């Protein structure tokens, strides 16, 4: 049974013959290898277009900003997977990426949709930016939805990466509209949510990337791409300085069993 409209698979990304590999209409060996950085190549693959200088600047900055996060759950999952299966580096990387969702790695995409929603409302309702932000944040509160990209367990003031990303965007000459939307959200949150939640990096990333023309629907790819590099670094360290089983031991040592036990059962001291 056919599902979907297409009956013939089509792609505009790559083709080849015996002599030439074509990527987005260009000769891979003649036009791309040694000519483009990896970030330039990624953007070309994604969109079929060469990145403008301002787009490349903020894309590079965003990737650098979120590649490394320390021993967060995704990294621990990867390192423990590698400890159990050292022959499968790819499996360990995959283990670290599988939890990409609304809490970890997915907030940048959600924040981008929030900003787009505010932008659409402002334009359609002829409201001020703060009025549109106030209305949309009010809708989030009414629906009991968290505000993606605001608040941080460690950085109670603005996440320090926010200022760096905003400065790169400004210096590169990228569009500032989404940064203005992000800051409007920060201004109205206290009055709606009754708490002061400041911008974190997951809001800064869509603010700078959307302003530079990066596609909204591909936002989640940025933390996935960045985290892949970070995971490979952690796994290389795991090869040389293994802590995967130590992480597992630390977790099991802290577990408190609260279920029933059979008659006569005595836990180990």
TrEMBL record:
Q: Recite the UniProt keywords alphabetically.
A: Transferase
Pfam families, per database record: Citrate_synt
**BP-aspect Gene Ontology terms:** carbohydrate metabolic process; tricarboxylic acid cycle
The record's annotation in InterPro entries points to:
Citrate_synth-like_lrg_a-sub, Citrate_synth-like_sm_a-sub, Citrate_synthase, Citrate_synthase_sf
Q: EC number(s) for this protein?
A: 2.3.3.16
Coiled-coil portions: none
Q: Which pathway does this polypeptide act in?
A: Carbohydrate metabolism; tricarboxylic acid cycle; isocitrate from oxaloacetate: step 1/2
- One GO location term (cellular component): cytosol
Record flagged with keyword RNA-binding: no
Instruction: Please give the Gene3D superfamilies that the UniProt record associates with this protein.
Output: Citrate Synthase, domain 1, Cytochrome P450-Terp, domain 2
Keyword Ubl conjugation among UniProt keywords: no
What family is this protein classified in? Belongs to the citrate synthase family.
Kindly provide the name given to this protein in its UniProt entry: citrate synthase (unknown stereospecificity)
Species: Stutzerimonas stutzeri KOS6
């Amino acid at each position: 049974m056919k599902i979907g409209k297409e009956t013939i698979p089509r792609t505009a990304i790559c083709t080849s013959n015996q002599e030439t590999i074509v990527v987005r209409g260009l000769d891979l060996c003649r036009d791309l290898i040694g000519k483009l950085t990896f970030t330039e190549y990624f953007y070309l693959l994604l969109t079929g277009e060469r990145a403008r200088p301002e787009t490349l600047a903020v894309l590079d900055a965003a990737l650098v900003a979120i590649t490394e996060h320390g021993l967060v759950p995704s990294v621990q999952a990867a390192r423990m997977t590698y400890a159990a299966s050292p022959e499968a580096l790819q499996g360990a990387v995959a283990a670290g990426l599988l939890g990409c969702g609304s809490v970890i790695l997915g907030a940048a995409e959600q924040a981008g949709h929030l900003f787009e929603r505010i932008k659409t409302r402002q334009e359609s309702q002829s409201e001020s930016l703060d009025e549109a932000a106030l209305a949309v944040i009010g809708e989030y509160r009414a629906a009991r939805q968290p505000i993606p990209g605001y608040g941080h367990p460690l950085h109670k003031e603005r996440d320090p990466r926010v200022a760096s990303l905003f400065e790169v965007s400004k210096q590169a000459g990228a569009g500032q509209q989404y940064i203005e939307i992000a800051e409007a959200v920060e201004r109205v949150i206290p009055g709606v949510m009754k708490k002061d939640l400041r911008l974190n990096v997951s809001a800064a990333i869509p603010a700078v990337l959307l302003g530079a023309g990066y596609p909204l629907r591909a936002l989640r790819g940025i933390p996935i791409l960045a985290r892949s590099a970070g995971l490979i670094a952690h796994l290389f360290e795991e090869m040389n300085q293994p802590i995967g089983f130590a992480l597992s031991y630390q977790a099991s040592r802290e577990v408190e069993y609260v279920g029933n036990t059979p008659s006569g059962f005595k836990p180990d001291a």
